[in-house]
Structure formats: C-alpha cells, structure tokens
Amino acid sequence: MSKSKLEYIWLDGYKPTSNLRSKTKVQEDFSGKLEDCPLWSFDGSSTRQAEGGSSDCLLKPVAIYPDPVRKNGYLVMTEVLNADGTPHESNARSTIDDNDNDFWFGFEQEYFIMDKHTQLPLGFPVGGYPGPQGMYYCSVGGKNTHGRDFVEEHADLCIAAGLNFEGINQEVASGQWEFQLFAKGAKKAGDEIWVARYLLDRLTEKYGYYIEYHPKPVKGDWNGSGMHANFSNTTLRTCGSKDVYLKICEAFRPVTDHHIDVYGEFNDQRLTGEHETAAITDFSYGISDRGASIRIPIATVESGWKGYLEDRRPASNADPYKVAGRIVKTVKSAKIPEYAN
C-alpha cells in the first residue's frame, strides 16, 4: 500500500491582495489523476473566508502537478467553494468566461528577492544603495547579478512540475528577476502562475529569503515590478487585419478603470509614466511601445497582423485569474463578428 502527499493550494480571502495557503492530504494508493483528488475542506474563519460560527469552506481540485521536491508528492491547485458548493466570493477563477480555452496567455512575472535578515533586495547594502540601474538587466557576474542559484533552482522545480515554463532573466533593478509562463486557456494560465508562485515562495524557506510582490518596493529611480499579460484568441492569431487589432485595443479604453481595479494593489506607485510604464490615469497603445498601456508587438505586425497583444499594466501582485478574466471580457466586448455574443 503506497501513500502520496497531496498539497492542496488555494487563495485566501484577504483584500485586495490574496495570499497563497496550502495544507497536505495523505492519500492511499493515489492514481495521480485530477479526477481522483477528493473534495476537501478548511477553516475559512482563519483565512477571512468565513465566520467562526459557520467556518467550513470547500477546496475543489482544478489542476494537478507532480511535486518536484516531495517523494510521492503532488501539487493540487484548488478553487474555494462555499459549504453549499457554490463558488466563494474570493474565487475569481470560476468567473473566467473561457470554457473553450480559445484565449492563450503568456504572463511575465517580475519580483524582488529579499534578504530575510536585512529586509532589503539582494545586492542592496544595509544603510545605502547599490550602483544605479543600468548594469543589472540580464547581467552576468558577481558584481551585478544576485540570486542566480535561487532563480535557477526555481526554474528547475517549475520544469520538473510540468509547468509550461518559458524563461528567466534578471530585471532592471538589483535583486529583481522575472520568469515567464505560457498556457492555452485563461484558467490554466492562472493555475500555472499560482503554482509557480507557490514553488517560488516555498523555496525561499530554504534560502533565508522572501519574495516581494509589491509593484514598487524600492522608491526612487528604480523600476517597479509588473506581471505583463500577453494574450491572444483565434481572432488575434488569424485575422490579418490592422483594423481588427485597433478595434480590440479601443475596446479597452472605456473600461480602463475596471482593468486597473483588478490589476494589483499599489499599482499607482508603479504606473507613473516613467520606468517603461504608462501613467495609471492614461490609456494608450502602440507598436513596440513599452511606454504604452498595451503594446502591439512588432512580431505581430511583421506577421501580417497575426499574433498577440501585451497589456503592460498588471502589477506583480495581481491575481492572474482576475487579470485574465477581465481581458477575456473586454476582448469579447469588441464584438468581432465570429466571437460576438
């Protein structure tokens, strides 16, 4: 008789920024399949998801990955349900309107690695600052590169877990890094970012670090952290029409505030119009423009207007389920004939 360790992962009810929670279920003779992961429960009164007098919330498994660290282990991403089986109000995944997986997402997750003892980004001396921005981006060598062993191990864990992990690079500020994930299906893209974040956060326990997802943890002339959302649907991938692209981009303009509302807490500190951002009060788009709200990649144009768009506004602490769900809704609102509701 074999026993497996299933790590059930969920998002808590803290607002406006949810936190990852997890606990382990030991299962005998587990098949490794999602459909054999049982429904489970937890104390919602300890996670701001229920009152103490009626505290049970349910965990519904929605994705499963092998745990690259634990023997006979699995990572089980779950949705939170109320006790009656309906989606909990904190469950943004259940609201995504992409049941046919027509939308593809590539998220670029930026973050700062923080030293737990100094509470500063790696490379920052106590009581001072490292050299100015310029030499850290995609750097090599001990003078400007900090945390490579940690980042490489995280990449290995994500790949071993079966995530569609696409790359890593050091970012513009000292101690700032990025990883990229791609998935076909808005819900799957959110699942994979959250599991990758879980692996990242869990790994910090081994190194004496913690991850700072705040979009502007270092004030002054330092880049903030985003979670750029590259997205497409069949229309964007195949239309071959500049006019269609512009119509979809324009659909974002009247709902700018709705997007900003779910694009991450403290994002106003990052979206200033400087450091490769558009101002939070503006909306713009442009070809190959990293200072625009939405960038139209040059590769899309050179492919005859067949490809994807990049929304550069989501912050590093944003919930990818909320970001993807809002983008799907807005793109569908453009009423391109074959996808009009």
Automatic annotation (TrEMBL):
<dbReference type="InterPro" id="IPR050292">
    <property type="entry name" value="Glutamine_Synthetase"/>
</dbReference>
<comment type="similarity">
    <text>Belongs to the glutamine synthetase family.</text>
</comment>
<dbReference type="GO" id="GO:0006542">
    <property type="term" value="P:glutamine biosynthetic process"/>
</dbReference>
<dbReference type="InterPro" id="IPR036651">
    <property type="entry name" value="Gln_synt_N_sf"/>
</dbReference>
<dbReference type="InterPro" id="IPR027302">
    <property type="entry name" value="Gln_synth_N_conserv_site"/>
</dbReference>
<feature type="domain" description="GS catalytic">
    <location>
        <begin position="87"/>
        <end position="341"/>
    </location>
</feature>
<dbReference type="GO" id="GO:0004356">
    <property type="term" value="F:glutamine synthetase activity"/>
</dbReference>
<dbReference type="InterPro" id="IPR008147">
    <property type="entry name" value="Gln_synt_N"/>
</dbReference>
<dbReference type="GO" id="GO:0005737">
    <property type="term" value="C:cytoplasm"/>
</dbReference>
<keyword id="KW-0547">Nucleotide-binding</keyword>
<dbReference type="Pfam" id="PF03951">
    <property type="entry name" value="Gln-synt_N"/>
</dbReference>
<keyword id="KW-0067">ATP-binding</keyword>
<dbReference type="GO" id="GO:0005524">
    <property type="term" value="F:ATP binding"/>
</dbReference>
<dbReference type="InterPro" id="IPR014746">
    <property type="entry name" value="Gln_synth/guanido_kin_cat_dom"/>
</dbReference>
<protein>
    <recommendedName>
        <fullName>Glutamine synthetase</fullName>
        <ecNumber>6.3.1.2</ecNumber>
    </recommendedName>
</protein>
<keyword id="KW-0963">Cytoplasm</keyword>
<dbReference type="InterPro" id="IPR027303">
    <property type="entry name" value="Gln_synth_gly_rich_site"/>
</dbReference>
<keyword id="KW-0436">Ligase</keyword>
<comment type="subunit">
    <text>Homooctamer and homotetramer.</text>
</comment>
<dbReference type="Pfam" id="PF00120">
    <property type="entry name" value="Gln-synt_C"/>
</dbReference>
<comment type="function">
    <text>Catalyzes the ATP-dependent biosynthesis of glutamine from glutamate and ammonia.</text>
</comment>
<feature type="domain" description="GS beta-grasp">
    <location>
        <begin position="4"/>
        <end position="85"/>
    </location>
</feature>
<dbReference type="InterPro" id="IPR008146">
    <property type="entry name" value="Gln_synth_cat_dom"/>
</dbReference>
